[in-house]
Amino acid sequence: MNMASGQNKNNSNNNIASPCVRQCCLDEQDVCLGCHRTLDEILAWHAMNYQQKSALLATLQQRANAGKKR
What does pTM read for this prediction? Predict the structure, then answer.
């Protein structure tokens, strides 16, 4: 993921870059308003494997869509 543009991109290690969009602000449930990750997910990102990161990105998209419906 190109962090500046927010686009997904695999790097040479077949790894997924952080979904951080540099708009960090946690809500009352410790979920970032920028990338929609929980504090625990943010801290665990670098230890996750490719499959875990891919699954989390799908979850983040669902969270973002759910937030737009409110």
Answer: 0.73
Tell me the DSSP string of 27-58.
-TTSBBTTT--BHHHHHHGGG--HHHHHHHHH
* Terminal alpha carbon distance of the chain: 27
Chain segment 29-50, per-residue pLDDT in tens: 999 999 999 999 999 999 999 9
Identify the three-state secondary structure at position 9: coil
In whole angstroms, give the CA distance from residue 51 to residue 37: 16
Query: What are the residues whose beta carbons fall under 8 Å from the beta carbon of 20, sequence distance 6 or more?
Result: 3, 34, 35, 42
